[in-house]
Write a structure and sequence with these properties.
ten-stranded mixed β-sheet; hydrolase; 12 strands; single chain; 10 helices; Plant_Biomass_Hydrol_Est
């Protein structure tokens, strides 16, 4: 790879962050043509030599754009029934050395002063927002039923034009750097402002948010007791925009993100017809989560009531505790399983990813994490 090509990839990444995908595609195409041809032949190289390469790259851009429409969800979240108890859903902003981000926090009506509750941090996918993600996952309704706080960090268009978390940048894959530092900061901010049980703090996400959730588990095993990754990628699956598209299409042979100091229990969901993030990435997330532990493996096949068939594979430690639970959902695409159509990128057919994640989280209690880095 030439220095000129590397410079082109940096420029393309900046264009994608700004939402200028067509210009980014042109930059990548020009860079591939220049990099692949010998100097004397670059000017006259026939386009047919690069058709296959460019077709794959264009497909990657098309898939990326397909998950980043500019249209809002089809309908707004339904209002709660009249007379029902409803908690508060408020917006705040966290600022730290790595920058600032807004977030929304749901506090259920059942919350009592001074009584510590679990906290679930939910990371949305590209083009989504905290409100959209809350509606699609029904996580606020679950919080009312089970009694926990839900925090929804929000990505900004200034940081990424499509509001994707920048999971593919090396600077956003390590502890106390970039977006991991921001999400950890938001988590600690909520813990400082509200009574939170530090041993029951969890993080989950969809797609780009799922990739960042996997990174949070790797980088902050002392902060999060368990992780949920839906249609995401392993930490370190990519290091720039070009490798991100490659990982999305065919996975990454050896993710090279931040090394975990401890195995963090992880639950993974991935549709086997996901055309945006290849299902092999779900396997990579599970493998990365169990790499430090000796495990036993058991699998079962089932069908969700009125929903999809699935295979659930559990990876157990020597004591029979599930370190990793992986759901391969048959005939499902790139959408939150069992989600509500009030939010974008949801599949109303089960299994119910929200319910199963919360069940898995309840099975895992971590160490009492400190509230400061």
């Amino acid at each position: 790879m030439t220095q000129m090509f590397r410079a082109g990839m940096i420029g393309a990444t900046r264009l994608v962050r700004a939402g200028r995908l067509g210009e980014a595609a042109t930059v990548v195409k020009r860079g591939l043509l220049d990099d692949a041809a010998p100097p004397a032949a670059r000017a006259a190289a026939p386009a047919s030599l690069f058709d296959g390469m460019m077709s794959d790259m264009q497909d990657a851009f098309d898939s990326f754009c397909a998950f980043n429409p500019f249209t809002p969800p089809a309908k707004a979240p339904a209002p709660p029934p009249a007379g029902s108890a409803v908690g508060s859903f408020t917006e705040a902003r966290f600022a730290g050395p790595a920058g600032s981000r807004p977030y929304k926090l749901y506090v259920p009506a059942c919350a009592e002063a001074g009584i510590a509750m679990p906290l679930v941090v939910m990371l949305h996918g590209c083009s989504q927002s905290p409100d959209d993600f809350a509606a699609g996952t029904r996580m606020n309704a679950w919080a009312e039923r089970d009694g926990f706080l839900v925090c929804y960090p929000g990505q900004t268009t200034a940081a990424n034009g499509q509001k994707c978390w920048n999971w593919f940048n090396d600077g956003d894959q390590h502890r106390d750097r970039g977006e991991p530092a921001l999400i950890a900061g938001i988590t600690r901010d909520v813990m400082a402002r509200h009574p939170v049980d530090p041993a029951r703090v969890y993080v989950a996400g969809l797609s780009a948010g799922g990739a960042l959730a996997a990174t949070m588990g790797q980088a902050y095993p002392d902060l999060y007791a368990a992780v949920g990754v839906h249609s995401g990628l392993a930490c370190g699956a990519a290091h720039d925009m070009a490798s991100a598209f490659s990982a999305m299409r065919q996975g990454s042979a050896s993710p090279a993100g931040a090394a975990a100091t401890a195995a963090v229990p992880t639950i993974v969901f991935h549709g086997d017809r996901d055309g945006t993030v290849h299902p092999v990435n779900g396997d990579a997330v599970a493998t990365q989560a169990i790499q430090a532990a000796t495990v036993l493996r058991e699998a079962e096949d089932g069908v969700a009531p009125g929903g999809h068939a699935y295979r659930r594979t559990r990876f157990l430690d020597a004591d029979g505790r599930a370190l990793v639970e992986q759901w391969a959902i048959r005939s499902a695409g790139h959408a939150w399983a069992g989600g509500d159509a009030a939010g974008s990128y949801t599949d109303p057919h089960g299994p119910d990813a929200s319910g199963e994640m919360l069940r898995f989280f309840a099975e895992h209690v971590g160490p009492a994490a400190p509230r400061t880095p």
